[in-house]
């Protein structure tokens, strides 16, 4: 049984990107519902003292068999430094965290080899002795030939004879550091220049492209020339992905279609409402009880900012964001107000935290109420179902709240469905305010009440989700609401803002 909760595309893959006239370089693409993340490889220090240079100094010793266990490519004749292209598998554990494929060799035993040709670097390494100290720097944008599949390696014989000119597609193995008099049988050992430092090769964010209102372009700017297996993604504020290059036309088309699908979905579920509010401070002092905040209901989320989002990048810098169907909004009546401020509403988050906001006018309050209703309805209609892990009678289960099917409980291991009930069969519920919920369902045949007790790690998120699905179900069945698309709140639509945040599931009846 498939309990997929979203029909938007999510994809990840490693491809090439080109900027301007630079050589293409490897990047990793990750497509989420509303953002395209472009990552590049980098070597970073993950432990030890802070560092302020991308250069590392590593000392390694040679083995009798296998030499230094490295292979190199490149050189000044290729307009790049010599680059480490292979690290022998049998020595990988010894070199882990110190040297990486893609490291450019800048110095060998203090000799600056940045401008050396490939063969000159080979000769320096031949004569380096039993121990060599390398100064290296990871080349994020290593030329494309390092990324391509290798042809047969240029594995030169262990002698002082010249290895010849290296082809860009052909490695020189560093076992050619062999010395006839070498009888050293010590295993290869590698140490960072500064004890305590640990380095890792990681994918790090290079660029974030928010997809809302983004456009795709397969053509060279201003022309009718179509790029081969490549395109760009341009955000609404002009941020550009660079030219994304794919190995095949099918790959390119697949990504184009996935991006277009997500952009289209975001366009349908655009910003519903946003504006300034005053938030009551949690630990308020007498002269600072409220702080101005900017709230935005957009797509699946409620965003809270300290300043309005001006560019698409700003949407990634919200102070907090909450999924709309897992929070609860309540308009505060006179007896619910916390102080002398009027026109207030509260938001209970999925963790049970209560946030309180004030607006200036009653009409603003009504707008926020309708905005929450519409945002929740659209998001529930979009996702169709939501599944939560739970415990029932000491067994790990899953509970799916499904817009069409109602409540479905299944075994987490076997995926076998244990029970299912329509929304109309829920006659009541109670919870302990911590983790447990007891549902009371009416059996359609016997009309008897059947109790089901489940335990969740996130009680409030589940309760709020159930509230949202109930309200959206009723709204969906009201033709006036569906036709109005939020222009008016129809009679009989159960306002999410009027449902109390007292952890009591509403008893709603409707035709199914």
TrEMBL record:
All copies of domain PH, residue ranges: 270-377
Q: Which Gene3D superfamilies match?
A: 2.30.42.10, Pleckstrin-homology domain (PH domain)/Phosphotyrosine-binding domain (PTB) (2.30.29.30)
One Pfam entry for this protein is PDZ
Question: One GO term of the cellular component aspect?
Answer: syntrophin complex
Molecular functions (GO terms)? actin binding; structural molecule activity
Its main localization is cytoplasm
Q: Which SMART domains match?
A: PDZ
Q: Which sequence ranges form a coiled-coil region, renumbered to this chain?
A: none
Looking up CDD domains in the UniProt record yields:
PDZ_syntrophin-like
InterPro entries (UniProt xref): PDZ, PDZ_sf, PH-like_dom_sf, PH_domain, Syntrophin, Syntrophin_4th
Look up the domain of life of the source: Eukaryota
Ranges for the PDZ domain?
57-140
Q: Which UniProt keywords apply?
A: Actin-binding, Cytoplasm, Cytoskeleton, Nucleus
What subcellular compartments does it reside in? Cytoplasm, Cytoskeleton; Nucleus
* Family classification: Belongs to the syntrophin family.
* Function, as annotated: Adapter protein that binds to and probably organizes the subcellular localization of a variety of proteins. May link various receptors to the actin cytoskeleton and the dystrophin glycoprotein complex. May participate in regulating the subcellular location of diacylglycerol kinase-zeta to ensure that diacylglycerol is rapidly inactivated following receptor activation.
Record protein name field: Gamma-1-syntrophin
Q: What organism does the record attribute this protein to? A: Gasterosteus aculeatus aculeatus
């Amino acid at each position: 049984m498939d309990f997929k909760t979203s029909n938007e595309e999510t994809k990840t893959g490693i491809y090439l990107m080109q900027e301007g006239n630079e050589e293409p370089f490897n990047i990793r693409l990750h497509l989420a519902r509303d953002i395209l993340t472009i990552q590049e490889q980098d070597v970073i220090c993950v432990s030890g003292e802070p560092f302020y240079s991308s250069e590392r100094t590593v000392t390694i010793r040679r083995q009798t068999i296998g030499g230094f266990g490295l292979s190199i490519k490149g050189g000044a004749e290729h307009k790049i430094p010599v680059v480490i292209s292979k690290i022998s598998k049998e020595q990988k554990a010894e070199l882990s965290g110190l040297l990486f494929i893609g490291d450019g060799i800048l110095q060998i035993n203090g000799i600056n080899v940045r401008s050396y040709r490939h063969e000159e670097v080979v000769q320096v390494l031949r004569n380096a002795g039993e121990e060599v100290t390398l100064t290296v720097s990871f080349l994020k944008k290593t030329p494309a030939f390092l990324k391509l599949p290798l042809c047969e390696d240029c594995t030169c014989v262990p002698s002082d004879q010249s290895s010849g000119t290296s082809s860009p597609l052909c490695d020189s193995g560093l076992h050619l550091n062999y010395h006839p008099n070498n009888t050293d049988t010590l295993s290869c050992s590698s140490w960072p220049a500064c004890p305590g430092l640990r380095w890792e090769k990681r994918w790090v964010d290079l660029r974030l492209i928010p997809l809302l209102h983004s456009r795709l372009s397969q053509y060279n700017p201003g022309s009718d020339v179509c790029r081969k297996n490549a395109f760009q993604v341009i955000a609404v504020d002009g941020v550009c992905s660079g030219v994304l290059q794919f190995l095949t036309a099918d790959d390119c088309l697949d990504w184009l279609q996935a991006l277009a699908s997500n952009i289209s979905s975001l366009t349908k579920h655009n910003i519903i409402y946003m504006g300034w509010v005053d938030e009551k401070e949690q630990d308020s002092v007498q002269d600072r009880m409220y702080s101005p905040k900017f709230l935005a209901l957009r797509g699946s989320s409620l965003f809270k900012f300290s300043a309005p989002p001006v560019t698409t990048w700003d949407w990634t810098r919200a102070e907090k964001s909450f999924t709309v169907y897992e929070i609860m909004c309540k308009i505060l009546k006179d007896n619910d107000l916390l102080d002398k401020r009027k026109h207030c509403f509260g938001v209970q988050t999925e963790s049970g935290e209560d946030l309180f906001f004030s607006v200036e006018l009653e009409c603003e309050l009504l707008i926020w109420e309708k905005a929450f209703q519409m945002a929740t309805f659209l998001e529930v209609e979009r996702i169709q179902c939501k599944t939560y892990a739970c415990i029932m009678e000491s067994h790990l289960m899953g509970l799916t709240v499904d817009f069409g099917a109602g409540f479905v409980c299944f075994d987490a291991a076997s995926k076998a469905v244990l029970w299912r009930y329509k929304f109309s069969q829920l006659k009541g519920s109670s919870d302990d305010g911590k983790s447990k919920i007891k549902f009371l369902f009416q059996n359609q045949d016997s009309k008897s009440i059947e109790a089901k007790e489940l335990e969740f790690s996130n009680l409030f998120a589940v309760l709020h989700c159930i509230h949202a699905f109930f309200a959206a179900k009723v709204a969906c069945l009201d033709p006036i609401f569906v036709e109005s698309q939020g222009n008016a709140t129809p009679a009989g639509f159960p306002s999410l803002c009027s449902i109390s945040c007292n952890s009591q599931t509403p008893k709603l009846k409707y035709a199914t």
